[in-house]
């Protein structure tokens, strides 16, 4: 087992920094923070990270590192890449002992403004928290409006405890709030929070409410008892009794893996993940797939679900699957799955969990903002919506679906807001 210093010394400290410039959505200065670890100067390493991110303890644990920073690492060409994610998490753990670590780190940069501009952040997930921090650092009077009685968004209710400790999220949030950010809990757009009223009070508004309504396939039997949306199961933690049951999870991303592993840990007899492409095309991190396999979760690659079949009481009894082949189509960047004629077959199931992606809640249609063809709030290159006073980021705006990309949108939106104000 290598020590932290040995893992840090494995880094070549490349001058071209592909891990930062190509691999990291936040463009963290990876070689430089690792250089500080080599000298056992963890506070300086944290300070370097804090120039670009306020979520190192989280991104270091849950980012798809092999598809981002570690996937771009020069070391990975002929061997194993540097353990960038692990080293980032270690910096957070060694540095953030109290809720003032970020405040202390930024104290020389924090601006004080007499008549500070006021910005409302709607949603306290990765995008909202990051935007809040960078705005507060610049002296803006920031208030977060959050629909729950806690901050963190999907970091709390979308990622199981076995992947991300709630204590790490709490430490991260507490550090951000120490910057002087105000929070109003149990405030939800479309219910007790009005966007028009907020515009009268604030100089700018940043929407970061996510998009957590599970996408449906439009197949027969999707409305049966025992069919669930993966995003909702994780968010509201209202799982059925999995004990002794057979659970099928449809999808190939981290939500699918999280749902499958949760069902298995809660006593499901059999858990199978159905994915219409090959393993190489799965968006889920390889490490997550390996952990699922180690927990005896079965993968049925190149299979597509065509129908959910009920029993006499209207509950799920079995599903019809069809095998697929992957072909290259003109204009497509990756192989496309095509159903193989007459390859249909049925397998037993007690529950079916749809984890195929997500979309914004229906009330977003009533916000008076222009939407794109996918139902996301449309933004320009400055993260502005069709209302120039309102900005949007994260899943709501269709930003790439990782925590780091959501955080990037929050930080860049904050920059745009500051330029306008």
Global Rg: 22 Å
**What is the mean pLDDT?**
95
Strand residue content:
15-25%
- What's the CATH C level of the largest domain? Alpha Beta
Largest sheet: 5 strands, parallel
The assigned CATH architecture of the largest domain is: 3-Layer(bba) Sandwich
- The largest sheet has its strands arranged as 3-2-1-4-16
Q: Classify the oligomer.
A: single chain
How many H/I helical runs? 15
- Number of E-type strands: 16
Could you tell me the CATH topology label of the largest domain.
Answer: FAD/NAD(P)-binding domain
Distance between the termini: 51 Å
Number of domain modules: 3
Low-pLDDT runs of 5+ residues are none
Tell me the helix content. Answer: 25-40%
Shape, principal axes of CA atoms: globular
For the record, what is the CATH homologous superfamily label of the largest domain? FAD/NAD(P)-binding domain
SS-derived structural category: alpha/beta
